[in-house]
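As promised in the previous annual report, we have extended the structural survey to additional targets. Below is the entry for Trichome birefringence-like N-terminal domain-containing protein.
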Amino acid sequence: MFEMMDSFNRTASFNRRASSFSSPRVHRRRWGRPPFLVFIGFLVFCFFKIIASGYINASPGSNQGFDGYSISNFNGSVGVCNVFEGNWVQDNSYPLYNASECPFVEQGFNCLGNGRMDRDYLKWRWKPRNCDIPRFNVQNVLERLRGKRVVFVGDSMSRTQWESLICFLMTGVEDKKGVYEVNGNNITKRIRFLGVRFSSFNFTVEFFRSVFLVQHGWGPKNVPKRVRSTLKLDKLDNISREWINSDVLIFNTGQWWVPGKLFETGCYFQVGGSLRLGMSIPAAFRIALDTWASWIETTIDTRRTQVFFRTFEPSHWGNETHRHCNVTLHPMSDTKGTDRSLFSDTILEVVKNMTVPVTVLHVTSMSAFRSDAHVGTWSDGQPVSDCSHWCLPGVPDVWNEIFLSYMLTNHRLSLR
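The corresponding structure token record, generated without further manual editing, is:
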């Protein structure tokens, strides 16, 4: 699908301290001296790999075999590596950056800066079962992005991933003053457009706030009083024209497709000139995604622009009222059903039927274990706890490592 890029310098990981999380404790493995016979040592290694069932592991399923979900192994002899099926292992080489040294992290996401004392949540790396996610040399990534335009489109979860990528890239920039928001804006959740320019490398990383992807506005005339606004499911957001001339597009949506953000605020669905008061949220979401897919197929030149869609990010609220939030000290061993999402399933189904290449970043299952990595009470003075958004550094950094793996290495990951 994408042109193969040059290989990148990857940090050797055999000498890292690693551990697997199993309920209810973290077990640390210690590597002893190698056996005298290399062959016997190899068999022992394979044996322990097979029985290491204590890992936190995610299996999104095996029926989404379209491009962007399965990743071919380097030599092609073992089949495919599903990068989203794996486990979280402890890795002391993380985090990738210091949020307090990155001016593009929202204060509300800087959990350490807001008083969080424990640091274990920063030390987890995602390990696919049959391959490795490359650790990229930041300088090489910056060079590959030279002259490019990377665009994120979506809700606050997309903005968090945007902030994460910028902070990671800034670690490789000597002249920090040469990295700036193009309009001089501070990073806030209300601005519809934010763009950060890396002047030394002549590229931008941009964010467009479009929480539904389709148009949100006034409804037709003569509607019931409870209808204050509508989502026009057959029309993409009116700022979509700004997304066209980009080299990379990363979409997400889902967090706002709930009754509290829709019906309880007087927002209902509209198709053409017709108000659809009885339409369910899942049905409306599917129509909106079909509208997005049609726009991609007819408007975006995928020979130039790499298109990604990141799936739904699970929350870890203690109840449906979103008033109880218990941030754990370690990842969960049981996702309690949060590893599946109707929104994610819809995204996978829509992309599978598209006529142009789109890569799905299926992060739902892997993120479902990370009840330890939410903002919780470590926000910027908010009166309520937060079990939806993520601390930075944290889980969005791993999303970006996977994103870069797809974007820069033509979906190929090194086998171990």
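Residues 234 and 272 are 7 Å apart (CA to CA). The two ends are 24 Å apart (CA to CA). These points will be discussed at the next consortium meeting with the crystallography subgroup.
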